[in-house]
Design goal:
Blueprint: E1 8-12, E2 19-23, E3 34-39, E4 42-50, E5 67-70, H1 73-99, E6 105-111, E7 117-123, H2 131-141, E8 144-149, H3 152-159, H4 170-173, H5 183-188, H6 213-220, E9 229-232, E10 235-243, E11 248-253, E12 258-263, H7 264-271, H8 278-289, H9 295-302, H10 311-322, H11 328-344
Parallel strand pairs: 7-8
Antiparallel strand pairs: 1-2, 1-4, 3-4, 3-5, 6-7, 9-10, 10-11, 11-12
């Protein structure tokens, strides 16, 4: 069959597992149908989750294995029997591993459709030499035994369960891949940084920390940073805290020595997204409020016949007004230099 005649269909083998694509060929399939396919573990039963009409053949670049057949009632019944058998053999595998003194925890096992191979998933802190265990189990079960080591997140996905939210684990119910989670996400959402309070049953950070991360980042971008000094109608204030959910900002009024809470939208209406720094208010706006012209205005008043200041001159005047001034060390150095010049130079003329 040529590539342009392929009919890709998405098949999933577990409830929240990865989707694999196969070639439906002449089979008329729809979402929800069970099919028998050939995998690396042998024949397995999967469920169609993406119908052929929902997939573009040009988007699938890799070669596709054909679907063997549509699953018959006998196939489904055999699959249920093999699941029960795998549970019994799982208990035996755990006992044998403990008797052998292996530092490993066998978590789950599953048979392929023809019962020729059973795959056990286990967790271990380090690498484990389980070759002797595999030989014993293969001889006892009369099937090929495969041991696969998984991480803590995969262990939780295999075992399933409920978390403190009262819902089934996301990874076991609908989440097909594990997102990258960092402690920075919990910090940006004002959550306690105690690992015991923000970790799931797998012992890792909650995957749900990523669900609202972008929303929190967008909201925080519209608020001033904690610790910033701002100017308000009530006077100078320091940003004490921000409440992202309530969209409010708590300010500490430095002159009144009290807290004031105000909506972030009101703060944006007054000052925009970039809050005015206190230095700008002290150097530029304070003289205007007191009736004193700003520094650049005083210079223009002293020279009324001078040409209007250019934009570059006005920018330089603002930068000069915003300068916090020279340090005492610089002033002392200039004074000493001036003193030496006066002492070494000629006396002033009468």
């Amino acid at each position: 069959m040529t590539d342009h005649q392929r009919v890709p269909v998405g098949v999933r083998f577990k409830e929240a597992g990865k989707i694999y694509y196969f070639d439906a060929g002449e089979h008329d399939l729809d979402v929800g149908n069970y099919v028998v396919v050939e995998t690396s573990h042998g024949l397995e039963i999967g469920r169609v989750v993406i119908a052929p009409a929902q997939v573009l053949a040009s988007e699938i670049k890799e070669s596709l294995r054909p679907i063997v057949r549509v699953a018959a009632p006998e196939d489904l019944e055999r699959s249920r029997e093999l699941k029960e058998r795998a549970k019994e053999h799982l208990r035996e595998a755990k006992r044998r591993a403990a008797d052998a003194g292996l530092d490993m925890q066998v978590q789950s096992g599953e048979y392929n459709l023809d019962g020729s191979q059973i795959t056990f998933y286990f967790t271990a802190p380090d690498r484990v030499d389980f070759r002797g265990l595999v030989r014993e189990l293969s001889s006892q079960f009369g099937a090929k035994v495969q041991m696969l080591q998984v991480g803590e997140r995969d262990r939780a996905k295999l075992l399933d369960g409920y978390d403190v939210c009262g819902q089934r684990l996301c990874c076991a119910s609908w989440q097909t891949a594990f997102p990258a989670v960092s402690i920075k996400m919990a910090k940006e959402q004002d959550l306690p940084l105690n690992p015991q309070k923000i970790s799931g049953v797998c012992g890792r950070l909650y995957c749900c920390l990523t669900f609202e991360h972008e929303a929190y980042r967008e909201l925080r971008g519209q608020m001033p940073k904690v610790g910033a000094m701002v100017s308000t109608p009530a006077g100078e204030a320091k940003v004490n805290s921000v409440n992202v959910m309530k969209k409010t900002v708590t300010l500490w009024l430095t002159e009144q020595h009290q807290l004031m809470e105000m909506p972030a939208a009101e703060l944006q209406m007054q000052y925009g997204l970039t809050v005015r720094p206190v230095e700008l208010v002290e150097q530029i706006e304070a003289p205007l409020r007191n009736g004193t012209p700003a520094p650049d205005a005083q210079a223009r008043a002293a020279a009324p016949d001078a040409a209007p200041a250019s934009p570059g001159d006005r920018r330089q005047a603002v930068e000069t007004a915003l300068d916090v001034g020279d340090s005492p060390q610089k002033r002392r150095r200039r004074g000493r230099r001036g003193g030496r010049n006066r002492r070494g130079g000629s006396p002033p003329q009468a």
